[in-house]
Specification:
Blueprint lengths: L9 H11 L18 H12 L4 E5 L8 E7 L2 E7 L5 E5 L13 E3 L2 E3 L6 E3 L4 E3 L18 E7 L2 E5 L12 H7 L8 E10 L3 H8 L5 H4 L13 E4 L6 E6 L16 H4 L1 E7 L3 E5 L3 E11 L2 E10 L6 H29 L12 H18 L14
Antiparallel strand pairs: 1-10, 2-3, 2-5, 3-4, 4-9, 6-7, 7-8, 9-10, 11-17, 12-13, 13-14, 14-15, 15-16, 16-17
Bound molecules: FE2/S2 (inorganic) cluster and fe (ii) ion.
């Protein structure tokens, strides 16, 4: 036997996703638990969903001034996002061109980045500035040595990075979403809260949780239910790259709201929750928004970068703190229940369960459909059931 393990579940996963693509919503069941617990399947998701796609690294407000930077690990790839001294935003592979150490760490503002190992130094564009005592080497060309540049774009104030130099732009596919959220002007909002945590749950559970309104009233009875109850959820038509739902504000709340002057009354009076799978989920209100950017670590652990960004300047620190407190209390309720979900999904007694009305869990189905499109495309000449056309 070779040391290589064979993932015997892989065909079952792909057949399940292929079958889902043929079913109507009224036949919809949740996925088998192994989707959320199997490490070989997570590896397939990493390879087929995360690595090839654009991912949200954060908000442009994090890197406004020349020299501002932050670093992170994207499913095994160290990345440095930096505003160059020339004012341009770049994403660089954070891997030293000498013997491979990760060069920069954390976040801050720097004029140059020095590798801690042998002190090779790079400027804020990734160009090598200095390599001590390398002059005797016969073929090394310091002038052409630089940290590899990754594709980097901004959309709605978010920074997106792609590791694949051939990847095309993604914005055209988001036109329907743009139309839906345009008037909120996310690109003008200001980040006032940022946190990073590791949650003990599968990344899909966290995305599904953020993106369904069924649990808002029962789980968040003392927090979010008072603002956005489940009864006011409305499923929205998904696009090629996104899925979304709308949720209204409780009539018990004071009617006056702040928001961009372009917003209609009904836009002012509801939130839009959208996801750009695999990693980004955003909750939009007229006054402020929240976002989560997910990076799986293993089947039962996900790193989540999250933040709140606000419309206009009229926010005192106390107002921001109150929003952060509600967000964190709500997220804590989610975190606790997702521990139980992960535990239940691993049980031999777990079975897929029926999905609730489309307005409440239609987004879960949209997410499954995205996975089906991405990981169980029909073979040429066959439909998604594998039948000959
Ligand atoms: S590995 Fe970076 S300077 Fe040697
Ligand atoms: Fe929740």
């Amino acid at each position: 036997m070779s040391g290589q393990s064979v993932n015997t579940l892989d065909p079952m996963f792909r057949q399940t996703l292929g079958r889902l693509r043929q079913q109507s919503y009224a036949q919809g069941y949740s996925l088998p638990g192994a989707f959320y617990t199997d490490s070989a399947w997570l590896e397939a998701e990493r390879r087929e969903l995360f690595l090839p796609d654009w991912f949200c690294a954060g908000r442009v407000e994090e890197v406004e001034k020349p020299g501002d930077y932050f670093c992170f690990d994207y499913v095994g790839e160290p990345v440095l996002v930096v505003r160059g001294s020339d004012g341009e935003l770049r994403a660089l592979a954070n891997v030293c061109r000498h013997r491979g150490a990760v060069v920069a760490s954390g976040r801050g503002n720097q004029k140059k980045f020095m590798c801690p190992y042998h002190h090779w130094a790079y400027d804020t564009t990734g160009q090598l500035l200095n390599a001590p005592q390398m002059h005797e080497h016969e073929s090394f060309d310091a002038a052409s040595c630089r940290l590899p540049r990754l594709q980097c774009r901004t959309w709605q104030g978010f920074i997106f990075v792609n590791l694949d130099p051939q990847a095309g732009e993604f914005e055209a596919a988001l036109a329907p979403l743009d139309a839906l959220i345009r008037n909120y002007h996310l690109e003008e909002m200001r980040l006032r809260y940022l946190a990073e945590e590791v949650w003990d749950t599968n990344w899909k559970c966290l995305l599904e949780n953020f993106m369904e309104g069924y649990h808002l009233t029962p789980l968040h009875r003392s927090t979010l239910h008072k603002v956005n109850p489940s009864s006011l959820c409305e499923h929205l038509e998904p696009g090629e790259r996104h899925f979304a739902y709308r949720v209204g504000f409780s009539s018990r709340l004071p009617a006056e709201r702040v928001g961009h002057g372009d917003l209609s009354e009904s836009e002012m009076d509801s939130c839009i929750m959208f996801a750009l799978p695999p990693g980004l989920a955003v909750g939009i209100g007229s006054d402020y928004c929240s976002f989560l950017s997910l990076r799986p670590l293993d089947p039962a652990r996900v790193r989540v970068k999250m933040g709140l960004f606000f419309h206009g300047d009229g926010w005192s620190q106390a107002d921001v703190d109150a929003a952060v407190e509600l967000f964190n209390r709500t997220m804590d309720e989610d975190k606790q229940v997702l521990l139980r979900v992960q535990q239940g999904l691993a049980s031999s007694f777990h079975r897929p369960g029926p999905l609730a009305a489309r307005d409440l869990e239609g987004t879960i189905w949209d997410f499954y459909q995205y996975m089906g499109r991405s990981m169980a495309p029909p073979a040429p000449g066959r439909d998604t059931n594998g039948e000959q056309k």
